[in-house]
Amino acid sequence: MALELTLTGRVQRIDAARMVGTTVPLAEVTLTFRVWQRRMSLFRPNIARISGYVPGEQPQESGWVKLNTNENPYPPSPQVTAAIDRAARGPLNKYPDPLSTELRRVVGQLFDRDPEWILPANGSDENLTLLMRTFVDPGELVAFPYPSYVLYETLADIQGATHRRLVLNPDWSWDFERIAPIIEQSKLVFVPNPNSPSGNRWSQDEILRLVPPRGLLVLDEAYGDFADEPHRGEIFDSPAGERIVITRTLSKSYSLAGIRLGFAIAHPDLIAGMCKVKDSYNCDSLSLAAAAAAIADQEWMLANTAKIRATRDRLGQALQKLGFHVAVSQANFVWTTHPTRSHQEIFQELKRQKILVRLMSFPSDDVDPSPPVDGLRITIGTDDEIDILLNALKQIG
Fold first, then answer.
1. Residue 378: its pLDDT value, please?
2. Which end of the chain has fewer CB atoms surrounding its CB within 10 Å, N or C?
3. Contact predicate 67/389, CB 8 Å
4. 78-297 domain in CATH 3.40.640.10?
5. What's the CATH superfamily of 65-72+299-396?
């Protein structure tokens, strides 16, 4: 709504839906304005100011080839459905284990850490929120690579923190000289590794250069299991290991995006502090049972990730033959650009054929200027789904 006072003591009200102007008595509109003003004052200023994170499109009707939100195209382990069935027949009238004891034990075994190093959460995004709430005061600095996962910026805005972009080179490498002063001042540095949307993975030596001297480095490894050589937390054995947090999710490699379960790995002192901030029962009984069963069946997960890596390589080669530029990916997606075609037009034509990919745009800003980046992020689906995509791209020309 827009209000404009006039010299005659009357106002012009603009109908936002129809854009039709009508004149109404001043007293009536003054009352309306006061109600609107009071309603807006309920919001914290930094909440009113931001637009919020927008997740990828989730069509509700069937028939789509859905390659836009990095979901795993293969089902979870049969042990998962069996575990959910057992849990569903259990005491659902009782609260779940607030400490997620069994899941912490299973994850700890996988990463060769004691359970006290593990904090399960409602998706890895909840752990990112817990990290922000636990360690960052309003006004403190949060940093993250750019282009990257835009949720980091949203979480900083919600917390009332300041944030800076660690602008990446066009080849997705670091300009360490340029970003060093930002790292020096940061309380938290978020680094997705592999990165999104590019899919590239940085070496441990590069990562260790990003640890802030007076803060924490958060390695967001949502796609870590898709790397050609996955790690098992060896970075914790480095001199900076006590100031590093790794977050993982079961949404991607374990095919469990529908249950919302992730975990953080960090020194027990850090985990103990985060436990003070988490909800008492932040993970439900069915999700905890499903997650423990999924992690226990490593053979199933590794078979699926191997298939995805093979399809990823095939897709990358095929896109290059069609004239696209493709970043080398270590995730379950590829980032691709075309030197002459409009990415918006390609996206819309694919969508018209009920094929969804992710059109992404990363504008520059005045604080950390960089060339704007846009392109297409394509999730690795089944071989049949990728064939449908490639045939459509061939027809588009």
1. 98
2. C
3. yes
4. yes
5. Aspartate Aminotransferase, domain 1 (3.90.1150.10)
User: Which residues in the chain are classed under CATH 3.90.1150.10?
Assistant: 65-72+299-396
pLDDT of residue 324: 98
What pLDDT digit, counting tens, does each position of 41-52 carry? 688 887 887 777
Residues of the chain with CATH 3.40.640.10: 78-297
Contact yes or no for 199/330 (Cβ under 8 A): yes
What is the pLDDT averaged over residues 198-224? 97
Tokens of 259: 């249950």
Instruction: Provide the whole-model pTM.
Output: 0.87
For the stretch 306-353, pLDDT in tens is 999 999 999 999 999 999 999 999 999 999 999 999 999 999 999 999
For the CA atoms of 378, 381, 387, 391, what is the dihedral angle to 10 degrees?
-30
Q: Render pLDDT for 148-173 as a digit per residue (tens, 0 to 9).
A: 999 999 999 999 999 999 999 999 99
